[in-house]
Amino acid sequence: MKLIIAGDYQEMSRIAANIIAEEIKKKPDLVLGLATGSTPLGTYRELVRMYKEGKLDFSRVITFNLDEYYGLSPDDPRSYHYYMYRNFFDHVNVRPENIHIPDGTAPDVEEESRRYDEEIKKFGGIDLQLLGIGVNGHIGFNEPGDELLTATHLTDLAPDTLTANARFFGSIDEVPRKAITVGLGTIMQAKKILLLASGPEKAAIMAELLDDDAVSTRVPASFLLLHRDVTVIMDKDAAEIYKNRAKKIDAAIQPASDF
Ligand code: GLP
Predict the structure, then answer these.
(1) Which helix (H) or strand (E) holds 156?
(2) Candidates 72, 129, 138, 178: which one to mutate for ligand 1, based on the most atoms within 8 Å of Cβ?
(3) Over its length of 259 residues, how does the chain's per-residue pLDDT go in tens digits?
């Protein structure tokens, strides 16, 4: 696992966008796994800027989003469909037919989940997966529990997630109780993973994740410790507790200036 501690949110976003851009330049038909939430917004802004400056071409890039709220239609401003178009797809040249997001309104969720996994397989799996992390260690909407599912599935959102995401809905009662998410299998089979964490509210989970050397279904992101090619980029606030505790900090951290 490569660790980069960026000075601030802006630097984290710039480094993440540079890594994504490099991968697209190496492989113009990159299969790119995308995340939502507040954390990747700056990364999307940077990618849009690179595209507008003529430095990046998304015309052959294939995208797969991690998740969608169950019951929200694509034109609902609180849906992840809406978020993705508004913050990214509307401003770059990803072809509409190359965009994939689970359909939260599919009448048969099991069928939709199977279809989504088939599509990912058809493109040979995810080349680069962008991830955020929940305060409870979830990735996508794979919530802590006794077991984690490998394939795309309908899931109940954890109470911590409902609380954290209430800010996008006005009140906690408005947050959908369920979501469709890709499973841990899809994430772990990605060839390369980029995990972003920003802000003091992520400091505790990042310290737990990075300093424990243990894998547990109670912290879904801990499975990333088993992956061969994960880069974690945190801003200073998210790294705060880890930095104070870390045993092997000097060996693990790559200087942000290298990126
Ligand atoms: C959301 C998403 C995740 C995201 C996480 C953190 O609920 N399902 O993909 O990484 O929670 O969100 P944020 O970046 O807003 O803290």
Answers:
(1) strand 153-156
(2) 138
(3) 899 999 999 999 999 999 999 999 999 999 999 999 999 999 999 999 999 999 999 999 999 999 999 999 999 999 999 999 999 999 999 999 999 999 999 999 999 999 999 999 999 999 999 999 999 999 999 999 999 999 999 999 999 999 999 999 999 999 999 999 999 999 999 999 999 999 999 999 999 999 878 899 999 999 999 999 999 999 999 999 998 876 555 556 787 887 8
**91 and 124 Cβ atoms separated by less than 8 Å:** no
Q: Whose CA is nearest to atom 13 of ligand 1?
A: 37
Give the closest residue (by CA) to ligand 1 atom 5.
Answer: 134
The DSSP secondary structure of 205-220, one letter per residue, reads: HHHHHHHS---BTTBG
Domain count, the chain: 1
| Residue at 8 is within a domain | yes
Check pocket membership of 244 for ligand 1, CB cut-off 6 A. no
Q: The domain that contains 55 carries what CATH number?
A: 3.40.50.1360
